[in-house]
Every structure is written in structure tokens, then in C-alpha cells.
Amino acid sequence: MNRGSILVADDDAAIRTVLNQALSRVGHDVRVTSNAATLWRWVAAGDGDLVITDVVMPDENAFDMLPRIKKARPHLPVIVMSAQNTFMTAIRASEKGAYEYLPKPFDLTELLNIVNRALSEPKRTSSEQRSEEQPESMPLVGRSAAMQDIYRMLARMMQTDLTVMITGESGTGKELVARALHEYGRRRNGPFVAINMAAIPRDLIESELFGHEKGAFTGAQNRSTGRFEQAEGGTLFLDEIGDMPMEAQTRLLRVLQQGEYTTVGGRTPIKTDVRIVAATNKDLRTLINQGLFREDLFYRLNVVPLRLPALRERSEDVPDLVRHFFIQVEAEGLQAKRISTAGLDLMKRYSWPGNVRELENLVRRLAALYPQDEISAEIIESELQTSDRPSSPPNGVMMPEDLTIGQAMEHYLQRYFASFGDELPPAGLYQRILEEVEYPLVLASMTATRGNQIRAAELLGLNRNTLRKKIRELGVNVYRTSRTS
């Protein structure tokens, strides 16, 4: 580990003590202060190899001081911490030239790794500052650990033109993230153009992407510009990329490789300068194995993979999202509302198969249909149960029918762990889960093949003797639909 002199500024005495002890223990020389004035005096005097500072200090905001630090000592890495764990905090830290942003409470091991990396790297020049301040808008909402990871990744991507592949279930906000990458990035003064591959007829996709010349096909009475041309100098968002037909994938790959394209019916190559952001709710690796998606195109698009968490993975963000959507509907002329604590608890336990989009629709429905200022738990329960999915089971967690195996297992394990309260399940969980999955899989295969073990073994990809052994061990009876107790 590279040892150095570290300046720590935080008005919380407990955090100063923890950082002082942890950093000193691994050999760093540490100086701590509770105010920005002392920190600036040290920096201006040339002290310290690295700064760790909270954003909100009693005498000055760190974001106001960062430009002075970067001007005076452009090579000095500054790690910014904040309890205001919002998307804009991460973006402002990046804009002001911070080396790294850490939300509070932070992981001490992660901080030590960042400190070591910062001290080990060659000194960098100051990054280009923005010519104007961005408004304190909130394009993304949530303070959960899952969203903090997203914010930090986005902050790193803002000042690059790297291609980004956003994955996540429907309704998680993939286009919102793509717009944030554009609006807070280097190409913010250029156009943002979005195209949904699933919404365009197969025979028109190439014309939509690359444009066409007059007379290129029946009905082409005039020249038409494509989305690549419209997005010149900006960002092209390719939504639902997994639904792109193979022939269009081939042309897109050629554009990404060569940086130029031709219109449909055209002959002259056109240079292109766009940032590509793609998104899908499908597993592209599965599509590759099925021969439905080009592997080489996948690697061209998957330069920076960014997975958006499902809402059930960040249920602690539900109250913030509810407040955000109520503010929106109030601005649109509807009455201000709030949801009872018990109602919010129900919403946090709900599985949200439609994710944030489903939550937004519920909030709008509550604002429009119910006159009371506070929405009770009874109303929330009724609304969730009467949605287009099965009613809530006794534990309050609702399960939609159209889940993937992985999603169903997520739901099952969430309920399973919750059933133990603050305790952990008994040891041996891995083997128990495998056995739980193995039995219905073998049973379904045997049922589908009408008890033919040779065909079932082929279906499962097992040796017949192996299958026979599993049938015996698991007690599978093809004529029964449930396991005997």
C-alpha cells in the first residue's frame, strides 16, 4: 500500500475518529479537522497527498471549495462523502472534480481501497469544468445502496463517450437513465434521439435508423433522414435492442465498427458521430445461444454494462418515490396526498412486477380517485389486490404469474429469509434449495414425456442411469402431481 499524508474534514467527531484510526492503522499520516477553513489552509500550504471531506461543513460547502482546491492543486485527489445520497450529489461531485464520491454510511474497506488506488495512480490533470451550473433537478430518485452504485457508475460515465448497455426489467427506468447520461454528459448540447426497436415493423427498421433516398422503395417519395443523422453530435438511444432483427443487427455492427453508414438506396458513405446507449429487458446471452442475437454486436454494445435493479430489490426507496410522484401530480393540478405508515409498509412488501412505472401509475390513481388527504393501508391493500395479478398471499407479498425462474426464486427467498425475522435460516441452505428445484424439474420432465425415462433423460441432458438414480432418491412418481410428505 502506498502510504501518504491524508487530510480529513468532517464535522462529525465519530467519523473523524473512525477515519483517523483506520487510516493510521495502515500507515498513513492523518490530520483531521471539523471545518472547511482549516482544510483549505492546509491545502493552500501544500500539505497532504489526499483529501477526504464531507460535503456539508459548518462553515462552507465542499462543492464550493472544490474548484479552489483543483485550481490551486490540480493533482490533489479529493474524496467526497455525503449523507445526501442523491443522483445530483454524485453528479456534482464528478462535475467539481472529485476523485470519488462515497455515500454515507460508507464501507470502511471500500474507502481504504479507494485511498490506496488514489495514492497509487499517476497524478492527473484537472478535468474540464462545466461552463454553467446544472439545476438541482432530480432525474433519478432513491437513496438505497443499489441506487448509490448506479449514481456512482453514471457519474464516472458522464465525461466519456463509451457505449453503455442498460439492462433491467420493464419499468425500471432505462430510458430515464439514458437521458441522464446525455443531459449531464459531454454531449448535452447535442440531440437525444430514442428509437424503440420493438415498435417498428421489421422491414422499416433500417430506413428508420439510417434514412432512405427518394425512390429507394415503394412509397419513398422523398429523402428521409434516419435516427443516426438526427442524433449527430448527440446520443442515440436504442431501446429494446433484443428485438432488433438479425439483418438490421448486421448493418448496425458495421456502423459501430466503421463509424459510417449509407442510407437505404444510397451509395455515398456518411460519417457518424453519436454516442450509443442501448437497453433491453431480455437476456441477450440467451438470445445469442438461440441464434437470435449476434455475439459480436453484443460485445460492441456491452462496453459498459449497467444493470438497473428491480424495485423489489430497493424497496426502501418506495417512500421517496411515492413523495416524488405525489409532488408531480400536485404540480399537474391534483390534490396533495400522503400515505399512512402502514400503507407504505404494504407497498414496500409488494413485489412490483411493473417496477417504478407500476408504482407511478398507482400513485396517480390514488391522487385522482380518493378525496382523503391520507391514504390508509386498507385502500393500499385493496388497490394492490385488485390489480391485474393474483391477490396477496397471507404474508402480504404478491406474486405475478409471468415471472422468470430467477425472479420467482428471488420472491421465494425474500419471503423465506423474512420468515426468520432478524435471525438467519439453518445452515445448508444451498443444498436445500437445489433439492427443492430438482424435484419439480425431474417431475415435470417425466410428466411431459409420459414416464419415458429415455426421452426425459435426453430432455434434461442427463445420463439415463443418473436420471434413474435421481428418480429413486427424490421419490418422483410421474402419476402424482405433488410430493408425498
Automatic annotation (TrEMBL):
Residues 121-140 are annotated as: Disordered. One of its GO terms (cellular component) is cytoplasm. Keywords: Activator, ATP-binding, Cytoplasm, DNA-binding, Nitrogen fixation, Nucleotide-binding, Phosphoprotein, Repressor, Transcription, Transcription regulation, Two-component regulatory system. Residues 5-119 form the Response regulatory domain. It comes from the Bacteria. Residues 121-133 have a biased composition (Basic and acidic residues). Residues 140-368 form the Sigma-54 factor interaction domain. GO terms for molecular function: ATP binding; phosphorelay response regulator activity; sequence-specific DNA binding. It holds the Pfam family AAA_lid_14. GO terms for biological process: regulation of DNA-templated transcription; regulation of nitrogen utilization. The modification 4-aspartylphosphate is found at residue 54. Its main location: cytoplasm. PROSITE patterns: RESPONSE_REGULATORY, SIGMA54_INTERACT_1, SIGMA54_INTERACT_2, SIGMA54_INTERACT_3, SIGMA54_INTERACT_4. InterPro entries: AAA+_ATPase, AAA_lid_NorR, CheY-like_superfamily, Homeodomain-like_sf, HTH_Fis, P-loop_NTPase, Sig_transdc_resp-reg_receiver, Sigma_54_int. It is found in: Cytoplasm. NCBIfam families: ntrC (TIGR01818). Member of the two-component regulatory system NtrB/NtrC, which controls expression of the nitrogen-regulated (ntr) genes in response to nitrogen limitation. Phosphorylated NtrC binds directly to DNA and stimulates the formation of open promoter-sigma54-RNA polymerase complexes. This is DNA-binding transcriptional regulator NtrC. It comes from Aquibium oceanicum.
